[in-house]
Write a structure and sequence with these properties.
Strand content: under 5%
Shape: elongated
Order of helices and strands: HHH
Largest sheet: none
Number of helices: 3
Helix content: 55-70%
Amino acid sequence: MTVDDKELKGAIDALVAAKRAALEMDRGPRIDVISSFIDLEIERFEKITTNLPKPNPAIEVLNDLFRMTLQEVWVEESSGLSAQHTL
C-alpha cells in the first residue's frame, strides 16, 4: 500500500525517524493525521470482513497434534535423549 496524502506521509516519516533515533521506544503524543488514518482503515477493514465466512478451525486436530508433540518430547526427555529445539 502506498500513502499518497503528503501530510500523512510526512507524519509517518517523522515518526519512523524519531523511533529509529530513540534509545527507548517511549510513547509520544498522539499524531492526529496518523491516528485518523488508522481509525479509517480499521473501520474500512471491519466493513469488508463482516460478510466473510467465519473460519472453523479444526481444533481437535490441532489438540491431537499438540498432545502427540508433548508425548514425543516427554518420551525423549525420560529416555535421556537430548531434544534439540530449533526454530
